Amino acid sequence: MSALRENIEAFCKSRGIAVPSGFSRHSPSRYVVIRKTDGDWQLTAKTWFNVSDVINYLNNYCEGVEHKILDFKEEIELKRRGEKQLEKSGNLQDVA
């Protein structure tokens, strides 16, 4: 198991965020999205290396859905800035 996968799973476990079984099928990348589903937070099974891919996912699957964008390489939380960019909104350890 990769260190990145271990970090993501430990982060989720410590905050009660559900990790889907499909998460283990792919090598994780630095960007992850957690979404609120039926009142509970859940990690998406897919992760991304490029900001443009994250933005595309957000445009297609997160409109009107509460979500958080996390960068496990820089250990920060991100938010959208405009249509094509993300910016830092906090530190990973502060995400509830």
Describe this structure in words.
The model has no long low-confidence stretch (mean pLDDT 94). The protein has 2 helices and 5 strands. The chain has one domain (3-94). It is globular, with a radius of gyration of 12 Å. The chain has helices at residues 3-15, 51-61; strands spanning 31-37, 40-43, 67-71, 76-81, 85-91. Strands 2-1-3-4-5 form a 5-stranded antiparallel β-sheet, with helices on one face.
Topology, element by element:
Layout: H1 3-15, E1 31-37, E2 40-43, H2 51-61, E3 67-71, E4 76-81, E5 85-91
Antiparallel strand pairs: 1-2, 1-3, 3-4, 4-5
- Give unreliable regions as ranges: none
How many structural domains does the protein architecture include? 1
H/E order of the elements?
Answer: HEEHEEE
With strands numbered from the N-terminus, the spatial order across the biggest sheet is 2-1-3-4-5
Q: Which quaternary structure do these chains form?
A: single chain
**What is the overall pLDDT average?**
94
Helix content: 25-40%
Overall, the morphology is globular
Strand content range = 25-35%
Number of strands: 5
Kindly name the structural category: alpha+beta
- Tally the helices: what do you get? 2
Largest sheet: 5 strands, antiparallel
Determine Rg (CA atoms, Å). 12 Å
Give the CA-CA distance, first to last residue: 25 Å
